Protein: dITP/XTP pyrophosphatase
Organism: Xylophilus rhododendri
Amino acid sequence: MSQRIVLASNNAGKLAELDALFAPLGVELVPQKALGIGEAEEPFRTFVENALAKARHAARESGLWAIADDAGLCVNAFGGLPGVDTAYYATQFGYAKGDANNVRALLEQMQNIDDRRAALVSTLVGVRSADDPEPLIASGRAAGEIVREPVGENGFGFDPVMFLPQFGKTFAQLPAAVKNSVSHRGMAARAMVELVVERWMA
């Protein structure tokens, strides 16, 4: 039987991306929801602390190795925010939680801002148990600019407004394979795969 790793996320978009990115490990990735595991508290102000809390929670509840992702949008003009609050960004402005409302709120808040620089950041943390003293930590960062209106049909989250100068397109205009090769989550996942092989499977 292959090694099972629980993914401490219920975000369908993240799960699909990570499933493809972790394929080289040859392990079975199990979403925490499939094991009846609820979401962990995320009280911290950094991606790494929240990802660690989620990974420890999933490992404790499942008894399996666990990998968690915490990711968000860091906008230069906002001092790096919304950061860890990205998923709930729209709710600060009276909108319901959701990708479309997050994009709408961001474009409204940046309407009169000329500095459009931003980065999507992903931090992955892996633990072999809830008490693992040596968590694996991998980060990825995709820098670009926020366009003034959504473009493209692919992806999720802020992909339709995150413009990548090297492609002249937004993430939402890129095929999945291309996006995964340059995205924040793709970078973090490839680094995590290397760490898992080196530290856990050697």
Residues 53 and 96 are 25 Å apart (CA to CA). DSSP finds five helices and seven strands in the chain. The two ends are 18 Å apart (CA to CA). The first strand starts at residue 4 and ends at 7.
